[in-house]
Amino acid sequence: MEIWINPACSKCRSAVSLLDAEGADYTVRRYLEDVPSPEEIRAVLGRLGLEPWDITRTQEAEAVELGIEEWAKDAGSRERWITALAGHPKLIQRPIITADDGSAVVARTDEAVRDASARRGGPRQGG
Fold first, then answer.
1. Greatest pairwise CA separation for the chain in angstroms
2. CA end-to-end span of the chain, whole Å?
C-alpha cells in the first residue's frame, strides 16, 4: 500500500497516524517532491474510478492562475487536466491511498483510511 501525502497537510498526518494505529504496512510518497508522472496519475485515476477534475484542488492559487474552474470536464479535456496535475502536483487532492488489492481512495476521512487499510491483503484490524 502507498499513501501520497503532503506532510504540511493535517488530513495527511491524520491518515498516516491512523495507518500506524491500524498496523498497516505502507510506503509514504511525498508527492510534491516525488511528483507523479502523467502515466501514474492516469493509473491512480483508473484505480479510483474518478476523472482528473474529481481530484483537483480548484481553490489553490495555482488553479486560480491556470483558470482551471473554466476548463471543460469532458473526455477531450482529460489530458489537459492530467498534464496540469503532473505539472502542478499541489493541485492533487490528498491523501491518496493505493491499496494492495488494486483499489485506491482519496482518504480524507478516518473511514476511508480504515477501508484502504482493510484492503491491504491481511485481516482488518480495529473493526
1. 45
2. 19
